[in-house]
């Protein structure tokens, strides 16, 4: 009862407050309560101590100052980084604070804002540090600020009080108050509230009473914060009955207890282990609909744990909802528990954390931070080993022992390191060099060269030998710049083999294009090797420097003279073993024209007597194609002769017959590549008449050619003969797949299987070749799937699987397709689930999902989702389902999926979908997406509304646009100034009233980024930082960023990629422009696979390379015939962007290089158009047909595959039936360029009657390239006969005709053609200005007068050239 009476004392203190309220009446009083509460809530945080503090921005709500000062940029950036970390993960590190302190010490001053934020950093935002350490830190900061005479006002003292409370620092509040008065600093309401909290934190109710009396005398409002403190105060004295009594008083005072209040009470119960009271209080909250979040329950758990009540801990863990942000809350609580030596309870919380799935579907390692903290806090070694073992056994962290070893080294705890090494040695599957890379990196940062050598010795202690990658990438960069002998000695002391050191040194030198150093190493250490790292580095160094002499000298430096010629160590054999692979690497890595780079090296190798194996020569011959020249052919013959010796040059006599044979064979291969069967057979006959024997390789080429033209008996005959003659002959899987595909298309199933029986497991490692192999396997299966033959498709799949080809979603796709083509949903689903279980792939998941949604088959759809989650994780699978529902118009179901507990925003995916909806003018779908994502954690609403506004503006939908402003108010979402300005300007342009004042947005102001917007919305208030201009981080003089930009400038793709990875790991953003430049460098370096990954990375994050580079990259893909990458890129492109990139033309150009793919592509076009030709299409559908037909790409297909002309004619005929003349236009251009004037004239009669703008730029290019005057005249005559052809189009054709005459120095004819154009109605201003200028210059050079005045570009009329 006494305690209740004591709480009655507080009730009397509130009497003045409660007299003003009629607790049983009236809206007026209620509004007054709400008004007063609103006033309090403006400035009062709902948290007092470290046990209660929610994670918020560093800046206190009472401080109305900008985050970043305009004067102290270095300090500002350091503080900005700290705040960014706090927003993302709710914590910062002590190093961040020390960095800020060091910056301030360097400039010997700090602004008031900087000092305020620095003080705030020293509290609960650094959970990894013990409270005493944090208090010492803030006192050091305070002393430093006073020493620099920084102006400290009441906001700084309030911040200091808050840090004291968070650190549970014991101090005398009254003395603190007295100190303020002595310094003539006036306390405010926040000051008194925190002083009262300090008393309550110690359980000093009498002291709290003194503060309350002062607040009463100053007529300061009493809010929830004070009541919560009193609950804490009574609980800390053990008077829990009075603690609950305060809540009753609080209610009588007109204030509603909230989750903060009950959390404080629960912590009081937890401190004393009162489980029953905890349970009843939680039930009470449920009944009152007061939500206790995971963070609240974790605070209760923390209190119970540090007071040794494990039963309460168990109970609280069972109550966790594990909603969004749970892991980060656990992270902070775990660090605090370890600081209180509660490692066992911390580990139990760790085990409760939700597993994190990475983008590749793998699970992220759990507990690295826990390992670091227990080692830092001097946890016993046996306990460390035990925790690591549990993490490994449970699969939470397979690298737990390695992380612990890294941390024990960092904190200099050898007793733990030795125990860990013994444990690591037991993990046989982890004993590989790459597993120690993080350790080496960490050791280099801690101990430099000595740290690295110590790590190497630890590796040696458990018999792990570092490889070349390890030494060159993770060791040498951190070693002192010693000579070779010293480095060898140092690394030998760490038991690194000298051969590994030598190769690593050479690789490092070659990466710098320093041949001299590499030669120095090679000359001192004898190495017999064919090391891939050396080959790649040597090839890259040569291609960048074109220093053939140095490369040859390097190769010779690695050789040693044998005492007995012809023995195993013969330099001639050594040279072939080493130089051959290096030459092949140079050829593979060189960009086209490849032989331009290779030929100088061949000459130098010949001069130095360096021979190469026949296999390398054959490889170059097969892949050089039309680039092969007589001189290169001769060099290859001599280099592979086996007669060259490195010690002296041996001239190899030329052989005219050999040259003639080689030229003939090359011509044969050239005809075969063009699929010109007649000419290829003629060349074969000529060669055979000269007693030339066709090699196995040439016979395989002929076999492909026969199969391509449907001469299956001849093709199969060659195949049989080859294997009869040489059963061990190796035919690449791609060629076997292609031949079998052709046979299947001709219904030669048995023969196809006979061919496939010859498949051998593939040892292919090249990513590019693996993709080609995968595509070939898919084409083979797709033929069977298209026929609807389930059994055949399955048999082919089994053969492909046995061949060793990795089963991907693409390869397994036909297994699903064959069932879907038969409307066998059950069969498709069964096969899909088998693929998921067996191969961890989800073939045709999107198609199958859509079919199931449309048929409303919920049971099967659930099976697809369950399987998808196993492969892609729950988040990705749920978003796939959301977008599938939206695509099918099932908005309600999409929303229900998004209401899944714990579902977080996938920014890039949502951004990509929004872009697509805007591009496709699908405003309703975009509105639905905005509507259903309203309550999804972390969605960037600003981004989505901006897209919706853009869509409204694009469609001129004024009513919809005006309604956005009201809609955003209803959602309680504040539009940024840029949005309001854009909306206001649009309404003004449409003569509509603007219901708000249009803000002025300065040029240097930027839209807040997504992370700021999200942080603001989560905090329930406007972000005080969001509207401030940000520093351009990309312009900071970071050495790493500078190195990265230099690497791009120098075209060093390997260095640029490594630096990019390092920068991104440090949180440094790489701009779209820089990523685009990196794509260009990768393409120029012949690394299309790398370029593709970079482009996909951009697309998945919602961006694209800059247009010029994007087109350059797509053209390179087309030249390489890389259809798969083009299709992958296309998945992220809107129809408009595809049009800008000429996507369909690019894809067709790539397909043109693969005869089998060409036929399949044309078959698809033909089947699609036939399916449409029987229906009436609306204008939008017809427009789509016109835009998606590859007019230019079809020309490329016809030029490379003339045999498909009949099929193209059939396609054009079907398109004409629908009124689409683009294909006819392409055929007309092809006929003109190929000289088939009869067909050209016939096609022209159809084309000129069409309503389309006729394109003929390919004809003009052909005219200029071949200086074909006759074709130019023919083109003009046809165009003139077309009534709809505009003068601007005629001007383009005449310009080409004039250019041909001028290039042939036929100036009189050029002037005559010009006059003819003018007399035919073409104005001078329509002709190409560069053509006219060049003609005028040529005339003046020979003394001829040019009779016309060339119009300036500004005088030229704006036209839409018909040829485009």
Automatic annotation (TrEMBL):
GO terms for biological process: regulation of mitochondrial translation. It comes from the Eukaryota. Residues 1029-1038 have a biased composition (Basic and acidic residues). GO terms for cellular component: mitochondrion; nucleus. NCBIfam families: PPR. PPR repeats lie at residues 188-222, 223-257, 258-292. One of its GO terms (molecular function) is mRNA 3'-UTR binding. This is Leucine-rich PPR motif-containing protein, mitochondrial. It holds the Pfam family PPR_3. Residues 1012-1038 are annotated as: Disordered. InterPro entries: LRP130, PPR_rpt, TPR-like_helical_dom_sf. PANTHER family: LEUCINE-RICH PPR MOTIF-CONTAINING PROTEIN, MITOCHONDRIAL.
